[in-house]
Structure to design on (296 residues):
């Protein structure tokens, strides 16, 4: 197995989607190829960092206004018979 | 409780919520909004790069959810349905603004970007919290990806959809999704490695 083969199969390996024989062959290559090992480790590191990187959330006031707008739109939503509007608590 | 059991409970609650919305009860909307608004906004923001447009897309997704709540059940998970609506709405906006450059058709035969920067960086999510420069580098790297690759990576690796769900959300085959995901991962790895190499700290905090 060449380094190019390893790179091509890297995502399947990370996702546990390689057949056992291919997996064994790839791991055999990894055991002796420093560069491929680095590529594997740093790819997994990259995925973990993005998974942990919180993207910005909707901020307080805009979030509240959007929810209110949607709640007004929801009275009678879903195409059901329009129900009498429920009283909001408070 | 296992993650699977949690997911099962969450899904049952979501179905109960959809049922309530069908009856025209807005209370449940608040619960769905709590669960989904930030996730959908985060995806839309990283696809569009514009907070106001991202908010519009989230609003559109919830309005569609209310209008089409009765059609979701049994067709796909709510998650897949919502992400698909957000993805399509974001792509429509990008096409309208002509910012989206068509990418060549991905296929298994096309040459993959060969890893070039082989620095062995080991950054942890904990370090990232105190490293604004790294967080900016991550955002720059993902913003530079073609939108189709970016969406595949975000849905699969960040939002945690399965390959099948992510493929359904962006409207491609699973094979195609996997090609996009693989390219995205390699490109992001390369850019992060280049950032670490340029900074010269080997990725380790001094």
């Amino acid at each position: 197995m060449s380094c190019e083969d390893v790179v091509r199969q890297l995502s399947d390996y990370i996702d546990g989607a390689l057949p056992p024989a291919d997996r064994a062959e790839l791991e055999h290559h990894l055991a002796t190829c420093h560069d491929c090992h680095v590529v594997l480790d740093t790819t997994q590191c990259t995925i973990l960092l993005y998974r942990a990187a919180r993207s910005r959330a909707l901020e307080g006031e805009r979030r509240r206004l959007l929810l209110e707008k949607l709640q007004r739109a929801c009275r009678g939503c879903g195409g059901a018979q329009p129900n009498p509007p429920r009283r909001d608590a408070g | 409780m296992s993650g699977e059991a949690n997911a099962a409970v969450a899904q049952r609650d979501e179905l109960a919520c959809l049922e309530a919305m069908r009856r025209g009860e807005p209370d449940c909307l608040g619960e769905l909004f709590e669960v989904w608004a930030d996730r959908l906004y985060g995806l839309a923001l990283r696809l569009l790069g514009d907070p106001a447009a991202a908010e519009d897309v989230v609003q559109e997704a919830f309005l569609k959810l209310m209008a089409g709540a009765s059609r979701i059940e049994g067709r796909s998970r709510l998650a897949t349905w919502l992400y698909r609506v957000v993805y399509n709405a974001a792509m429509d906006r990008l096409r309208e603004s002509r910012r989206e450059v068509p990418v060549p058709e991905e296929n298994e035969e096309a040459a993959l970007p060969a890893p070039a920067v082989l620095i062995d960086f080991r950054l942890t999510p904990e370090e990232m919290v105190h490293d604004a420069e790294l967080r900016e580098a991550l955002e720059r790297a993902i913003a530079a990806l073609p939108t189709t690759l970016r969406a595949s990576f975000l849905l699969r690796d960040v939002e945690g959809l399965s390959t099948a769900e992510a493929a359904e959300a962006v409207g491609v085959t699973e094979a195609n999704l996997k090609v996009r995901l693989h390219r995205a991962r390699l490109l992001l790895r390369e850019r992060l490695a280049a950032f670490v190499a340029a900074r010269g700290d080997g990725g380790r905090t001094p």
Q: What stands out?
A: The radius of gyration of chain A is 25 Å. Residues 34-52 of chain A form the longest helix (19 residues).
